[in-house]
Structure formats: structure tokens, C-alpha cells
Amino acid sequence: MKDINWNNYSLETQAIRAGHKRTHEDEHSMPIFTTSSYVFKSAEQAALRFTGQAAGNIYSRFTNPTVSAFQERLALMEKGERCLAFSSGMAAIMAVGMGFLKTGDHVVCSRSVFGNTVLLLQNYFGKFGVKTDFVDLTDPAAWESAITSNTRFLFLETPSNPLIEIADIELLAAIAHKHNCLLIVDNVFCTPALQKPFELGADIVVHSATKYIDGQGRCIGGAVIACNEIIEKFIYPYLRTGGATMSPFNAWVFLSGLETLAIRMKAHCDNALELAKWLEQQAGIAKVHYPGLQSHAQHELAKRQQSHFGGVLSFELNGGKEQAWKLIDATEMISITANLGDVKTTITHPATTTHGRLAPEARAAAGIKDSLIRISVGLENIEDIKKDLLKGL
Ligand SMILES: *Cc1c(COP(=O)(O)O)cnc(C)c1O
């Protein structure tokens, strides 16, 4: 196999070809290496590998060829130096915390991040004396004034869930660096096909591969991407010791997910934009949240920062929970589930599911109304999606 520098290729090509090191069997498709350990040619080689003086596989908790192929491919696509795969998106975020935080440290986090990210920082890192302040994603002044001398990193998701607000990554990276902090971006909603946080100044990108990277709702996985130094010093030692490893089978599924990522994301975005415009025209709808709409507060920022507007939207009905549940229950085809990033369209009532554990006041402060519905727009025919929603509108 030729030694190709994949940095010279575009994302669509990297997604299909990078990472696979063909074996002596000359296979065309990436194999799954189901082996827990590897055999050394001598005691000396074993010693050199264990101490890191020689490259090569050691033990599949932290070295596996299928997982390595996934890591190499995703790092290239994100334009980061190195990627490490984890057993889930939460395990990836946990690894960043375990790698960087100690008692007395401080974190500034967007108020609009994945619910378990809030719980992880607040309840678990909080238990060990790490304090987290949560701020409005779209208010840079609030981010800056929350930073203290102990702040280690700023953490955000953009677009946010479920209100699809957009943060200015470049501006927040500048604020973070001015105060000697790192900026961590959860890039799950956009994936590298739509948004490249490193080009905007982010220091670490985290992923739940469970969503668009898989794309068909099959496996759980996650990843951390950063420069060599951060991975080598802070993330790899934790993965090797902590053991939240991605399985080779899941890596194999995610590798083929990446192959079609760019084309799927484009199709998700096309369907979502058309659905958002259509929803804005329907009676009974108070507001549609989608950055591709002129009515979205950060429409211009989204246009600048992303190549397309994403596959997730939300909307508020006239009324409350009763109207929202009625609409959800009236659909025939769309799946009632909280997962997103699937080829299947999914519908969720955030106030009673993903954000149901928040106190009503906290939910109101976050702007999540009882009439709010979130849709992860799939790749079914858009007219069928509209028809299904019309049943309850
Ligand atoms: C799902 C999700 C996570 C957590 O990922 P898991 O793979 O479910 O552990 C983190 N961030 C975002 C934005 C997500 O949607």
C-alpha cells in the first residue's frame, strides 16, 4: 500500500480512504481486529513497546488496529493532530475532565449543553471540589466575567440543543486564550462535515460518535481530538489507565459511517431547511428555531461558521404540553425517541424527556417551553415527513 499523505486530500476522500493500513492479506475493506492482546517477537520488543520506546500494538484497551484506523480518519477530518476513541461520548468528555481537572479548579460551561455533561461537571467533578459556572451560550461578556484565576477550560456545544442557538467559536477561543484557558467544543451537532472548530481556535473537540458519525443509530462511541501534546500528556494516560475503550466492532461501524458522513449531512441539512421553512408557514406554530431561517438571531454567524445549517430544529406550538404531546402522538411514521443524527426522523418533547430532570425554573431560564418540540430531521422523503407532522398540526 502506498504511503499517502492524507492531509493533501479533501474531507470526503479522507472519510473513505484514510486510516486503513492494509495487511498482508490485501483486503480492500477494513477488517475488525478482535484480539485483546498482541504477540511480541522477543522480551526486549515487549519491554520497548510497554515503555513507549517502540511503536506497535500492546493491548486493546489502548491499541487496536480497527480503533486506530477510526482515530486517524476522524483526526484528519477534524483537522486535528490526534484523536482518541472512547466507549461513549460521555466517556470522551469524562476523559477531558479527568485529564485536566484537580480539586480547586474551575470550569465555565454553556448552560445549553447535553444534560449528562451538566450532571458530570456538577455532581461528579463537583464532588471532588471542581466548581463549574454555567453561562448563556450566546453572551460572550458572561463567559469572560465568569472566568477566574482557577479556570482551566471553557466548554460549549454549538448549535445548542434543543433551541439551536449558535456560539461564536472564534470569539470565545480568543477570550479563553486571553485568560490562559482552553476552549473545548462538543462538535456532535455539526460534525467536521459542517464545522471545523480547530480552524476557529478551539483547543479540544469532543464527539459522541453515536449520533451523525454512526448515522444509523447502531452503536455507542465517542472521541477526543487535540494536538499531540494534549493527547500525549493529558488524555492518552487516562484512557490507558481508566479503560473507557471503544470496541473494535463499534470502530468498524463508525468507520463506514464516516464514509458517507459528508453526503448524509448535506441531505440532512437540505431536508431540515425545507422543513423549517414549511413549519414557519403552518398555523398553530408560534416559533421555529433553525439557524437557516432569516428569523434566527444568529443566522449570519451560522452562515459564516458552518457550511450548512444542521439537521436538527425545534419549534414552539401555540399552547402547552397538552398540544405538544398531541402532535407527537398523532405522527405515524416518525420515531418518538430522544436520539438524534439518525437517517430516521425522530421527535422529542424536551421539557418532559431530555430536560425533564431540570427544575421548572431552570427550564424556564433556559428558554425550554412546555410547547417546544425537537425534530432530528432524517433522510426520508421530505413530503412524507411533512405529511406525518400535518396529522397533528
Ligand atoms: C449524545 C450526546 C453526548 C453524549 O454522547 P453518548 O455517546 O450518548 O455518551 C454528548 N454531547 C452531545 C451534544 C450529544 O448529543
From TrEMBL:
<comment type="function">
    <text>Catalyzes the formation of L-homocysteine from O-succinyl-L-homoserine (OSHS) and hydrogen sulfide.</text>
</comment>
<dbReference type="GO" id="GO:0071268">
    <property type="term" value="P:homocysteine biosynthetic process"/>
</dbReference>
<dbReference type="InterPro" id="IPR015424">
    <property type="entry name" value="PyrdxlP-dep_Trfase"/>
</dbReference>
<dbReference type="InterPro" id="IPR054542">
    <property type="entry name" value="Cys_met_metab_PP"/>
</dbReference>
<comment type="similarity">
    <text>Belongs to the trans-sulfuration enzymes family. MetZ subfamily.</text>
</comment>
<dbReference type="GO" id="GO:0016846">
    <property type="term" value="F:carbon-sulfur lyase activity"/>
</dbReference>
<dbReference type="InterPro" id="IPR015421">
    <property type="entry name" value="PyrdxlP-dep_Trfase_major"/>
</dbReference>
<dbReference type="InterPro" id="IPR000277">
    <property type="entry name" value="Cys/Met-Metab_PyrdxlP-dep_enz"/>
</dbReference>
<keyword id="KW-0486">Methionine biosynthesis</keyword>
<feature type="modified residue" description="N6-(pyridoxal phosphate)lysine">
    <location>
        <position position="211"/>
    </location>
</feature>
<comment type="pathway">
    <text>Amino-acid biosynthesis; L-methionine biosynthesis via de novo pathway; L-homocysteine from O-succinyl-L-homoserine: step 1/1.</text>
</comment>
<dbReference type="GO" id="GO:0071266">
    <property type="term" value="P:'de novo' L-methionine biosynthetic process"/>
</dbReference>
<dbReference type="Pfam" id="PF01053">
    <property type="entry name" value="Cys_Met_Meta_PP"/>
</dbReference>
<keyword id="KW-0028">Amino-acid biosynthesis</keyword>
<comment type="subunit">
    <text>Homotetramer.</text>
</comment>
<protein>
    <recommendedName>
        <fullName>O-succinylhomoserine sulfhydrylase</fullName>
        <ecNumber>2.5.1.-</ecNumber>
    </recommendedName>
</protein>
<keyword id="KW-0808">Transferase</keyword>
<dbReference type="GO" id="GO:0005737">
    <property type="term" value="C:cytoplasm"/>
</dbReference>
<dbReference type="GO" id="GO:0019346">
    <property type="term" value="P:transsulfuration"/>
</dbReference>
<keyword id="KW-0663">Pyridoxal phosphate</keyword>
<dbReference type="InterPro" id="IPR015422">
    <property type="entry name" value="PyrdxlP-dep_Trfase_small"/>
</dbReference>
<dbReference type="InterPro" id="IPR006234">
    <property type="entry name" value="O-succ-hSer_sulfhydrylase"/>
</dbReference>
<dbReference type="GO" id="GO:0030170">
    <property type="term" value="F:pyridoxal phosphate binding"/>
</dbReference>
<dbReference type="GO" id="GO:0016765">
    <property type="term" value="F:transferase activity, transferring alkyl or aryl (other than methyl) groups"/>
</dbReference>
